[in-house]
Amino acid sequence: WVVTLVYPNDPDFGVKATRRIELAADAPSMEILTLYEKTDRNTLDLGVWILTQLKEPLALHARLPIQSNFPQSFQPMSGRLPPSQVFAIRDRLLSLGRDPMNPHRIGLEVGSVLWMDDTTVLKIDSPRLPYRNYPDNGVSAIVSTEAGPEGFVQVDMLGPVKQVRKGDVVRQRS
Question: Which residues of 138-150 are buried (b: 16+ CB within 10 A; e: fewer)?
Fold first, then answer.
């Protein structure tokens, strides 16, 4: 099964977006391909972000890189770290749960994030390309957790940023 969504040209940025969502016929798998096409003459630094909102997990996991742009191998983006009851790093494996009292955002240099609850496991892949320019000093994934009794988590997979001119296409797969 394939669904293709074509969005109208955004006059503020001069970009037309196309999103192709494909469900695998023989596996529990979905692929999202996002394309941004530059349609006007102005140059623009552009990268594709693919966002996934999910219910509260038991945990989110990500394997941190051996070498990182960040002193802690991740980038705290919300001012404070989550409490130790919902946040840990062991052998480069970052584990994060949702803090019901405070929201948190953490930037990562990874190409995969694993989300788990009692009955389901979801692996979100989006290739991290070497030697490319990623936003926020090298972040290719952002995990955000919301506070409150009905909170959720959001996993943003970020493509590299590229300067585009009219006719250029930027694409990212997740």
Answer: bbbbbbbbbeeee
- Look-up of token digits 């994060």: 96
Strand pairing partners for 103? none
- How many distinct helices (H) and strands (E) make up the chain? 1, 16
Q: Are 165 and 130 in contact (CB under 8 A)?
A: no
Backbone angles phi, psi at 136, to 5 degrees: 50, 50
Spell out the residues 6+ positions from residue 127 whose beta carbon is closer than 8 angstroms to its own: 111, 173
C-alpha closest to that of 62 among 105, 97, 94: 94
What is the Cβ-side half-sphere exposure of residue 52, based on CA atoms within 13 angstroms? 23
Q: pLDDT tens, 45-80?
A: 999 999 999 998 888 999 999 999 899 999 999 988
Q: For residue 15, report the phi and psi dihedrals to the nearest 5 degrees.
A: -135, 135
Rounded to two decimals, the pTM is 0.91
- Residue whose tokens read 């930027």: 170
- Which 8-state DSSP code applies to residue 136? H
Residue 122 and residue 17 in contact, taking contact as beta carbons nearer than 8 Å: no
